[in-house]
Write a structure and sequence with these properties.
By secondary structure, the protein is α/β, with parallel strands linked by helices. The protein has eleven helices and nine strands. The chain has a nine-stranded mixed beta sheet, with helices on both faces. Strand 2 and strand 3 form a beta hairpin.
């Protein structure tokens, strides 16, 4: 079934598992899309395993995390499947889609655009939550109802939003340096205005802090993990983790917000703490027995 559904672009042996890159024609996006998968040894042998989506940040692709994060060693040991989609449609034919590094190609912000011309193809929210989620569930040895989601920067925003809006689909959530309150930062305002329009009430569905402020319960009682470097050049202007922390406290949502002196926004930071995130997901996703 896997070969009938997906085009295998490449495959690489890695920690006795396999690193794969796939292409498929997305009905949601209306264009070819690519994503990467790491299958641990147990999954290669056909054993159903829990899976974790990783959503990458601005300018990244489905390849960035798999090359830079160093996640496969722990994923192999813990029996976790890793899945990374691209960060936006590619070659959508939208005028100006490659003119800005923080909007358009490489910057889909994990939302469903409502403004023309972006609304035709820029539908990353529905693509991940529905199409890709169901595709990997049907095509890979993923254990039923055992998926988590994490991400970095723009992808951290995506992980929080997709997780909070779909706790039935994603049972665990974590993030590295997320854009935690995009309605209040330049990156978010630019993206939301372009993709969603000027009605700021429409922005709230894609703002993790606003979503949490609207809750009176803890959708993830075992906790959300966020790591943030204090030498992050984007922390003060773009990220605002303190707003998300306050919203979690008000809703009674357990949050582990860990702040690290000297760490910046890049993959040296991510690779330092990736094992903690994978173990966070492994504890939540593995069956008790």
């Amino acid at each position: 079934m896997l070969q009938q559904t997906l085009e295998l672009v490449s495959e690489h042996r890695c920690f006795d598992g396999v690193q794969r890159f796939y292409r498929h024609t997305s009905t949601t996006i209306g264009l070819p899309m690519q994503f990467s998968v790491y299958l641990p040894p147990a999954a290669v042998q056909g054993k159903p395993c829990p899976a974790v989506f990783f959503l990458a940040g601005l300018t990244c692709t489905e390849e960035t995390f798999m090359i830079k994060a160093g996640a496969q060693r722990t994923a192999a040991r813990e029996g976790l499947i890793l899945i990374t989609p691209d960060t936006s449609p590619r070659n959508a034919g939208v005028a100006g889609e490659t003119e800005h590094w923080d909007f358009g190609a490489g910057a889909g912000f994990y939302l469903d655009a409502t403004q023309a011309p972006w609304n035709r193809h820029y539908r990353m929210y529905s693509y991940i939550v529905n199409e890709l989620h169901d595709l990997v569930s049907a095509s890979l040895p993923v254990r039923d109802n055992r998926m988590g989601i994490m991400g970095h920067s723009m992808g951290g925003h995506g992980a929080l939003v997709l997780g909070l809006r779909n706790p039935d689909r994603f049972r665990s959530v974590s993030a590295f340096a997320p854009i935690a309150a995009p309605s209040h930062c330049p990156w978010g305002k630019k993206a939301f205005s372009g993709y969603l329009g000027d009605d700021k009430s429409a922005w709230q569905d894609y703002d993790a802090t606003a979503l949490m402020q609207g809750m009176n319960h803890a959708p993830f009682p075992d906790g959300i993990l966020i790591d943030q470097g204090l030498a992050d050049q984007f922390l003060a202007e773009q990220l605002h983790p303190e707003r998300f922390k306050q919203a979690c406290e008000a809703a009674g949502q357990p949050l582990m917000l860990r702040e690290h002196e000297g760490y910046d926004h890049g993959y040296y930071f991510i690779s330092t703490f990736i094992d903690d995130h994978l173990m966070h997901h492994a504890r939540a996703l593995k069956p008790a027995n």
